[in-house]
Design brief:
The protein is of the alpha+beta class. The protein is built from 2 helices and 2 strands; from the N terminus they run E-H-H-E. Helix 1 crosses helix 2.
Length: 79
């Protein structure tokens, strides 16, 4: 296997880091960028909430009403 690229970045105190699986943003017959933009918009709207409330709000907005059909995980950490 080929080596995977690596990157480094720094975060300000109080920054919020959101880690998620593709099941949260991917939809059949929809460009992946649409789902990523939907996630970014939801995170921006709820950015002042504590991490648990932020995660709950994002999941409520992004998950389909009948539940996810793909693995879905979201971790929100305030740094």
């Amino acid at each position: 296997p080929a080596p995977r690229p690596q990157a480094c970045t720094s975060y300000d105190d109080g920054a919020t880091l959101a880690l998620y699986t593709d099941g949260l943003v991917e939809r059949r017959r929809e460009d992946i960028d649409t789902g990523v933009n939907r996630l970014a918009d939801a995170l921006a709207r709820h950015r002042d909430a504590d991490p648990e409330t932020l995660a709950d709000a994002v999941l409520l907005e992004l998950l389909p009403p009948g539940g996810a059909t793909d693995d879905t995980a979201l971790v929100v950490v305030r740094l």
